[in-house]
Design brief:
Elements (H helix, E strand, L loop, with lengths): L22 E13 L4 E8 L2 E6 L5 H4 L7 E11 L6 E9 L3
Antiparallel strand pairs: 1-2, 1-4, 2-3, 4-5
Length: about 100
């Protein structure tokens, strides 16, 4: 006879770039809008059979706008930059798509 086994919630790792050159690569599997208290965008990238969550930001969202679900993607953190007109700091990124 079988037994009950408690199902634990599996936590998906979140990419948190810290230094210039940090990067994540994989297949873009999901784009969510208005997530969390800040109504942010949340991107899911699958890499080596695991999912990685990437929170959107002012520096990343415009680059991700036209990225297609199912496409191969490469995001590289360029470090903190300063907006010339506002003086505010923001995270800067490069985004690449794989083209056959």
């Amino acid at each position: 006879m079988g037994s009950w086994v408690k199902v634990e919630r599996e936590k998906t790792p979140t990419w948190k770039p810290e230094k210039e050159g940090d990067e994540v690569k994989g297949v873009l599997t999901d784009k969510q809008m208005d997530v969390g208290k800040n109504k942010s965008k949340l991107y899911t990238i699958e890499n080596d059979d695991k999912e990685i969550l990437v929170w959107g930001s002012a520096g990343l969202d415009p680059l991700m706008k036209n990225m297609e679900i199912g496409g191969k993607i490469h995001i590289r953190f360029l470090g903190m930059k300063v907006n010339v007109s506002s003086g505010r700091k923001y995270k800067s990124f490069e985004v690449f798509r794989y083209k056959e």
